[in-house]
Amino acid sequence: MSDQQSKVEQDRKLLNDAQAKGTGATLGAYMRLSGPGWLQSAITLGGGSLAGALFLGALGGVSMLWLQLMAIVMGVVMLSAISYVTLSTGERPFDAINQHINPVLGWGWLIATSLANMIWCMPQFSLCYTSLNNNLLPDAWEDSRSAQVIVSLIILAIVSFVVFLNARRGAAAKVFDLLLKGLVGMIVLCFFGVVVVLTLQGQLDWGAIFAGFIPDPSQLFNPSGEIGALVAGLPEAGQAFWSSEIVPMQRDQMIAATATAVGINMTFLMPYSMLHRGWDKTFRGLARFDLMTGMAIPYVVVTSCVVIAAAFAFNAKADAEFLSTDPATFQTSPLFKETSGTLWKRVATESEAGTPYADLSAPEQAAAVARMAALPEAEKRIAASTVKRNAAALAGTLAPLIGEKNANRVFGLGVFGMGFSTIIILMLINGFVFCEAVGKPDHKMYYAAGCLVAGVIGAMWPFVWGGTSQFWFTVVASTFGAMLLPIAYVTFYMMMNSRSLMGAEKPTGGRMLAWNVLMGVSTLGATVWAITSIYNKATNTSSPQTALEGKVIIGMVVVYLALVVIGFFVKPKSAAAAKSVTG
After folding, report:
1. Which segments of 201-355 does DSSP mark as H helices, in order?
2. Would the pTM of this model clear 0.90, i.e. be above it?
3. Lower CB density within 10 Å: C or N end of the chain?
């Protein structure tokens, strides 16, 4: 018996003995053996989660807290489903999908996962670099592309060593698990601390916060929270303009926040990380416990804390200079540069509307600024809420308690932990993907190649992911993830209902009905978000580039759906052939 098999037998005996002793002993065993759920937490608490939560709080206040809670619940349902299927059958999901469901869905799942890994690695390296350069080591070097590359390669070397620990299994893998749990715990404490500070200062309305966890789908179509109230109090022309500005922005953030809760690459990680540990039917209860305590709870705590802090700091808030009606004072506000384009559209006449603010002559700009400064305070507060802040700005909420320098370091540490842990997991997933693609599970060379491909591409972010908006490119990647997620959800729904795959392990009666209802709601939700995202991209004709992007997206969707239909006709032959080979 190999060391891996011996370890699995020890874990199985520990679980069986604990279950015989009762609930308390079982929970203790679960906590000792947990692991894959913490891997999920390490990836979901990344740059996309931070960026999405920051802007949700700034734009919608605490009224949109329900969104991330709903998204993680749907994600846990689907991850529980793929865990149940994998542990019940012992089959590798990629092969199972190809043989029993549809090879196009299987390959689509695998390719989309690999693409997501490589796309998402870039903003995580960017996030790590930004937190080091701005928060943790602000005076250590001069920011430049060469510095970005050097620091990113150093991070890559460290991350690769950590990934190597996990591949070694045994004691090294245990160290890896403890490291990830420590990183997740640090992230939770950093952002939880902000809410504790604000609560002690009496700055938070907890009634409104609890109300924000009640779902409100109308936010897809109307401005929400305090911004919604400000818009409703404007004259008709102001209401029409700001609604047309706020609602699409709000909808995009809702989609992005949903996509960062559970991405398609996370659906690949869960089953393969369990198989990698040798888990089987005995471990099904542990898998569900692991998802709740290792992923869902940390995610809800961190993202909710970020939304609450961002709402307090930025929602309907503006500095005194920005609220001034004096044009000279108004221009000195740091918010002016970020909002001038939008405010110019608000005050421009029909004859001026086609000319961007930046293209106006100096006298024309001076006249435009005077008109912007004269806008009502409510409209300025609305405009200020559309500015995409960064983590450094949010760190200011801790300054009254621990000082500005310490606040920057604490937040920098949390942000760095988010990016660093996510890089580790993205590389691990890509290792699993490469092994499955060539049909050689746990092959060390292909596994290492997959890990390094994702890491190297991520470290090259300065050539692709640079610029002042690097922090917010994560939201773009989140929207891309939303369009891919239904591929996985539809596939898992079909797997759970496949008699040829599940055999005697297929749930029946009330259990099957419960699974179908929960999975159906989750699949429908993911599909609605995806359709909304695709529609927004396809109908965006604000520039020739965005119009072209919309056409490309529509073309990709049409081609893929056509291939899926063909795959269902190919699948029975493949399944039959597989059955004849096995006996």
Report:
1. 206-211, 225-232, 236-261, 264-276, 284-290, 297-314, 320-323, 327-331, 334-347
2. no
3. C
- In the numeric block, which tokens belong to residue 226? 């305090």
Contact of 290 with 34, CB cutoff 8 Å: yes
**Residue 354 φ then ψ, to 5°:** -80, -5
Contact yes or no for 236/6 (Cβ under 8 A): no
Distance CA 160, CA 164 (A): 6
Instruction: List b or e across 498-519, with b for residues whose CB sees 16 or more CB atoms inside 10 angstroms.
Output: beebbeeebbeeeeeeebeebb
Contact 563, 104 (CB under 8 A): yes
**Rounded Cα distance, 49 and 293, in Å:** 18
pLDDT at residue 379, as a whole number? 94
Q: Between the CA of residue 471 and those of 52, 194, 484, what are the distances in Å?
A: 10, 21, 22
Would the CA dihedral through 19, 24, 27, 33 be positive or negative? negative
SS3 of 466-521: CCCCHHHHHHHHHHHHHHHHHHHHHHHHHHHCCHHHHHHHCCCHHHHHHHHHHHHH
Split at pLDDT 50, 70, 90, the class of 292 is confident
Distance CA 356, CA 379 (A): 20
Question: Is the predicted pLDDT of residue 574 greater than 50, yes or no?
Answer: no
In angstroms, the first-to-last Cα distance of the chain is 28
The tokens describing 243, both together, are 């609604």
pLDDT tens readout for residues 431-487:
999 999 998 887 888 999 999 999 999 999 888 765 444 444 544 555 555 666 787
Return the pLDDT at 399.
Answer: 62
DSSP state letters, 375-420:
S-HHHHHHHHHTS---HHHHHGGGHHHH-HHHHHHHHHHHHHHHHH
pLDDT band at 412 (very low <50, low <70, confident <90, very high): confident
More confident residue, 44 or 159: 159
Cα–Cα distance, 220 to 290 (Å, whole number) = 32
Q: Tell me the pLDDT tens digit for each residue of 148-197.
A: 999 999 999 999 988 887 666 656 667 766 776 777 777 777 778 778 88
Q: Rounded distance, CA 109 to CA 194, Å?
A: 38
| Buried b or exposed e, range 251-267, using 16+ CB within 10 angstroms | bbbbbbbbbbbbbbbbb
Candidate from 108-112, 497-501, 552-556 with smallest mean pLDDT? 552-556
List helix spans (H) across 45-169: 47-60, 65-89, 93-100, 103-131, 145-168
For the beta carbon of residue 385, count every other beta carbon within 10 angstroms: 28
State which amino acid sits at residue 519: M
Q: Please, are residues 233 and 379 in contact by the beta-carbon 8 Å criterion?
A: no
Residue 274 above 90 pLDDT? no
Q: Is the pLDDT of residue 395 over 80?
A: no
Q: What is d(CA 471, CA 133) in angstroms, rounded to the nearest whole number?
A: 13
CA–CA dist 145, 125 (Å, integer): 13
Which tokens hold the place of 23? 């609930």
